[in-house]
């Protein structure tokens, strides 16, 4: 087999076989095929697209390029959730104990990563004592016993995806549905999930800013999952404004605690119920979405989800008292309100700009080496469509620096108030089951 022929076939719009796809992924991973040939192929894929069968083959070739996590020692159907990324997205902190309280095993492998705030692990580490440095055996035992545990990412998962993603980054081929879909799905499949629920975000704060692109990506990923025997469902949700009110690590833990007690923000609660219902159905703990939703709603109001959260914190060394006393979480020194400059309706709260403001306060990492300040962030008091009076606080900045002039300037640029009538944006655009 020659790489030249594979490039030529795709350039001319042909369909690559599983063998051809495995050939170029293996050859690239082990360094036998050079960057320039893979670059040419990526550009051909960008213009010629891939069939559903090619996409599934590409995904599995990337899965098989490295280690795969074996979760077979965990009883039941393991379901994982993936979000394409947003601002103030606290859903994992809520969903993990919520679905576990219904007996769905949640073996969560999570990273720290870069971003506006930390990842799930960073957020959980805001709980004094909580740690993810546990052995694989302890992790499996905890999931079997409590149905939920979190561990840091380890092993050499999908090395082909890491190499390809770096190359796409410098060859203008990131924005390709078959390449994005196979990249995301390969990582979920290598992590050992039997069932996968995808939260595909759309809007200013999302990777897929355009709704039609988000729909296409969601359908592409569901198709790949189902083709390779991982039942997959998806939700397309809004990320034009931040989710919930809190953006920041400890602040989002507090928001998760409120939500697990049935008194969280409406949008965050709704999204958790929608995604959670799909997870419960995939794990076969309910017959259909409506029954699953009913069970989840009960778990939020009867204390089952909240108790599961406390058990989860305690089992990994965390001080579960924070659930009843959130003031035990790290607190920022200064709380500074942002008054509205005029009266009217909130027309825009640009999600990624708010994320950047949170990062300027120290809530997220700009580089892998940056330290995160778990206590800082932003708590909104208004969302799109809400009325404000002049001078009313739009949000509170939680900071450890007294001077936040630059952050304030950024926030005023990101929030628009109008005298016209504004409706709250749609939260869930589509569910794919
Ligand atoms: N996220 C991924 O993991 N892969 C992509 O290709 C794009 C976004
Ligand atoms: Ca939030």
Automatic annotation (TrEMBL):
Q: Name one GO molecular function term.
A: 1,4-alpha-oligoglucan phosphorylase activity
UniProt EC number? 2.4.2.2
What biological process terms from GO does the record include?
Answer: pyrimidine nucleobase metabolic process; pyrimidine nucleoside metabolic process
One GO CC term on file: cytosol
Q: Which UniProt keywords apply?
A: Glycosyltransferase, Metal-binding, Potassium, Transferase
Domain named Pyrimidine nucleoside phosphorylase C-terminal: residues: 345-418
Cofactor requirement: K(+)
Cross-referenced InterPro entries, in alphabetical order? Glycosyl_Trfase_fam3, Glycosyl_Trfase_fam3_N_dom, Glycosyl_Trfase_fam3_N_dom_sf, Nuc_phospho_transferase, PYNP-like_C_sf, PYNP_C, Pyrmidine_PPas_bac/euk, Pyrmidine_PPase_CS
Pfam families found in the cross-reference section: Glycos_trans_3N (PF02885), Glycos_transf_3 (PF00591), PYNP_C (PF07831)
Question: What is catalyzed by this enzyme?
Answer: thymidine + phosphate = 2-deoxy-alpha-D-ribose 1-phosphate + thymine; 2'-deoxyuridine + phosphate = 2-deoxy-alpha-D-ribose 1-phosphate + uracil; uridine + phosphate = alpha-D-ribose 1-phosphate + uracil
Q: Which residues form a coiled coil?
A: none
Instruction: Specify the domain of life of the species encoding this protein.
Output: Bacteria
Query: Which family does the similarity line name?
Result: Belongs to the thymidine/pyrimidine-nucleoside phosphorylase family.
Under the subunit heading, UniProt states:
Homodimer.
Please explain the role this protein plays, according to its UniProt record.
Answer: Catalyzes phosphorolysis of the pyrimidine nucleosides uridine, thymidine and 2'-deoxyuridine with the formation of the corresponding pyrimidine base and ribose-1-phosphate.
The cross-references to PANTHER family, in alphabetical order and at most eight, read: THYMIDINE PHOSPHORYLASE (PTHR10515:SF0)
Question: What is the official name of this protein in its record?
Answer: Pyrimidine-nucleoside phosphorylase
């Amino acid at each position: 087999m020659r790489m030249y022929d594979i490039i030529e076939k795709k350039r001319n719009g042909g369909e690559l076989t599983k063998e051809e796809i495995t050939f170029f992924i293996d050859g690239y991973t082990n360094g036998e095929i050079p960057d320039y040939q893979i670059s040419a192929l990526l550009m051909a894929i960008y213009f010629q697209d891939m069939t559903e069968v090619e996409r599934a083959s590409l995904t599995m070739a990337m899965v098989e390029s490295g280690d795969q996590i074996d979760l077979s020692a965990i009883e039941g159907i393991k379901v994982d959730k993936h979000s394409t990324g947003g601002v103030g997205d606290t859903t994992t902190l809520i969903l993990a104990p919520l679905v576990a309280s219904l007996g769905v095993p949640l073996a969560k492998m999570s990273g720290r990563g870069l971003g506006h705030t930390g990842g799930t692990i960073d957020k959980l580490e805001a709980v004094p004592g909580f740690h993810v440095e546990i052995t694989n055996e302890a992790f499996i035992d905890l999931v079997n016993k409590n149905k939920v545990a979190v561990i840091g990412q380890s092993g050499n998962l999908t090395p082909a995806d890491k190499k390809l993603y770096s190359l796409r980054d410098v060859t203008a081929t990131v924005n390709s549905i078959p390449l994005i879909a196979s990249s995301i799905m390969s990582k979920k499949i290598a992590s050992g999930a039997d069932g996968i629920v995808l939260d595909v975000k759309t809007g200013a704060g999302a990777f897929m800013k355009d709704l039609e692109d988000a729909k296409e990506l969601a359908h592409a990923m569901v198709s790949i999952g189902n083709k390779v025997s991982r039942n997959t469902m998806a939700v397309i949700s809004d990320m034009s404004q931040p989710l919930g009110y809190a953006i920041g690590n400890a602040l989002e833990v507090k928001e998760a605690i409120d939500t697990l007690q049935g008194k969280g923000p409406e949008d965050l609660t709704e999204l958790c119920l929608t995604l959670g219902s799909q997870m419960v159905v995939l794990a076969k703990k309910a017959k259909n979405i409506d029954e699953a939703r009913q069970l989840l709603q009960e778990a939020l109001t009867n204390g089952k989800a909240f108790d599961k959260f406390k058990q989860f914190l305690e089992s990994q060394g965390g001080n579960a008292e924070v659930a009843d006393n959130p003031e035990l979480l790290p607190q920022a020194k200064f709380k500074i309100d942002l008054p509205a400059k005029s009266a009217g309706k909130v027309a825009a709260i640009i999600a990624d700009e708010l994320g950047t403001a949170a990062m300027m306060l120290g809530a997220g990492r700009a580089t892998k080496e940056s330290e995160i300040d778990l206590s800082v962030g932003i708590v909104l008091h208004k969302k799109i469509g809400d009325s404000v009076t002049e001078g009313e606080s739009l949000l509170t900045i939680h900071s450890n620096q007294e001077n936040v002039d630059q952050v304030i300037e950024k926030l005023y640029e990101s929030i628009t108030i109008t005298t016209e009538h504004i409706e709250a944006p749609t939260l869930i655009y589509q569910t794919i089951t």
